[in-house]
Design a protein that fits this description.
The chain is an alpha/beta fold and 437 residues long. The protein has 2 domains: 118 residues, no CATH class; 193 residues, Aldolase class I (TIM Barrel, Alpha-Beta Barrel), CATH 3.20.20. The chain is 33% helix and 16% strand. It is built from 14 helices and 13 strands. The strands form 3 sheets. A 6-stranded mixed β-sheet has the order 1-4-5-6-2-3. β5 and β6 form a beta hairpin. The longest helix has 17 residues. The protein is globular. The protein starts with 11 loop residues before the first helix and ends in a 34-residue tail after the last helix. Bound molecules: iron/sulfur cluster. The site of iron/sulfur cluster has 8 residues, from loops.
Length: 437
């Protein structure tokens, strides 16, 4: 295992080396992780085509490597939410990857025979599809809001993403999670003149959901989320504020979609309230496993709840939702960030692997998103982890998942190569993969 965190520049040679070395994860997953860590550079020619695809809705964070104000080609309005890569040098099965704008990325999206293709070092890695615009995006709410702002879909239309509170009351460097740009992204979207509602109105959400209910067959799941509420919001506690949404949704559309919530780690009694409201899957994200790093990287969570308490609550919540329906997220790669992170891939995987084993041994299946070093965060723009780290991480995740014979995480659609739609890491792409010689 490599013992340096110097960023590995992407090249065809590196991809082929990883393909030879990591035989228990598919090549689709290896490339997906590399595109996620590096971002995409769309040519002006690609962005100038007709906008007949769904562009980035900035559903919660920016997930870009540069600020909106530095996007000279109109990427913020024209880049697709996701791309689906097929064929090319590695003969890939269709692979859905979230867009992270980065004009300095080695991954170039250019036209070839009038179709967008992904290139690295001039080599064609596959043709690209962009996600379709749902038919109901043509409507406007009575209050004058666009569906893509109120209830955007991601994961190729599978997930309705309801960021009902676009800020977080963990505020400033002493409280915000060091990798998170929710508050900064809100400000930059407003500064760019984009409609970007801070606290979403229930009536707007129900109105958009009524169009989805009558016109859409692709969306199967909704996620309710937003920043943490420390004091109160709209004169409500955090639990009461967030509870209003699933209660109203499930009352109007009982069981129409699977309801999930991404929120702080709550005590069991509060979890029960969400379960009773109709929420089926709970994501109390623990972000990073190592105790010292949790304290440095999640200072707000540390001082308001504390790591031990957080983890105890995650475990306790399994009694309410059932262990397979508790899916805490961690930010893959942030344990190698500067200045506090581990020095080596080996240490990072040992620590993260310990966390995976801890939760998976109890039937709880953590998932991960791929850390994007966004410019306005405490960690700032910096060289992210090497591709080799992500290959090791996927291998460890899959090994531990298989060791405990765990079921496919609910609420993510079909698993496996060519099926997975979860676009911000490849954990769903590796499920069921049998390896290659
Ligand atoms: S709790 Fe942390 S990760 Fe979540 S929104 Fe607040 S600052 Fe961001």
């Amino acid at each position: 295992m490599e013992t340096t965190t110097i960023r590995q520049p992407s090249s065809l040679q590196l991809l082929e080396e990883m393909e030879r070395k990591f035989r228990f994860i598919p090549m689709e997953a290896i490339l997906k992780q590399d595109v996620l860590r590096q971002g995409l550079d769309f040519s002006q020619e690609v962005l100038n085509r007709n906008l007949d695809y769904k562009s980035k809705d900035y559903f919660i964070f920016s997930f870009d490597h540069i600020p909106l104000s530095e996007m000279k080609k109109g990427e913020d309005r024209k880049a697709p939410e996701e791309v689906k890569i097929s064929g090319g040098h590695f003969g890939l099965q269709p692979t859905v990857v979230s867009t992270r704008n980065n004009p300095n990325s080695p991954y170039k999206v250019n036209l070839s025979e009038n179709t967008p293709h992904l290139f690295l070092d001039g080599v064609d890695l596959g043709s690209l599809e962009f996600p379709p615009i749902p038919s109901w995006y043509r409507h406007k709410t009575q209050s004058g809001k666009f569906p893509g702002e109120i209830a955007p879909v991601i994961e190729w239309g599978y997930l309705i993403y309801l960021t009902v509170f676009r800020n977080c009351q963990y505020f400033g460097k002493d409280e915000e999670c060091a990798f998170c740009d929710i508050n900064h992204n809100y400000r930059q979207q407003k500064n760019a003149g984009r409609p970007y509602t801070g606290v979403k109105d229930l009536d707007d959400i129900l109105e958009v959901l009524s169009w989805i209910d009558s016109e859409d067959e692709i969306a199967k799941v909704y996620t309710i989320t937003g920043g943490s509420v420390l004091t109160n919001l709209k004169k409500k506690s955090e639990v009461d504020f967030y509870l209003d949404y699933p209660r109203a949704i499930e009352e109007k559309f009982p069981g129409r979609w699977m309801g999930k919530i991404v929120a702080q780690a709550f005590e069991k009694e509060d979890c029960q309230k969400f379960k009773d409201a109709g929420i089926q899957v709970y994501h109390p994200n623990y972000e990073v496993w190592d105790k010292n790093l949790f304290e440095k990287i999640c200072p707000g969570k540390t001082s308001w709840i504390g790591r031990d308490n957080w983890i105890r609550r995650v475990v306790d919540s399994a009694e309410v939702f059932g262990p397979s329906h508790v899916i805490p997220n961690f930010v893959g790669g942030v344990e190698l960030s500067q200045p506090w992170g581990f020095e080596t891939i080996e240490e990072a995987i040992r620590s993260t692997g310990e966390g995976l084993d801890f939760f998976m041994s109890k039937g709880i299946v953590p998932r991960f998103t791929t850390w994007c070093p966004e410019p306005f965060t405490t960690l700032g723009t910096q060289a992210g982890p090497p591709l080799e780290y992500f290959c090791e991480l996927l291998t460890k995740w899959k090994e531990t998942f298989e060791k405990y014979s765990l079921p496919t995480p609910p609420g993510y659609g079909e698993p496996g190569v060519g099926n997975a739609v979860f676009s911000v890491s490849a954990f769903m792409d590796v499920i069921g993969y049998r390896g290659r010689n």
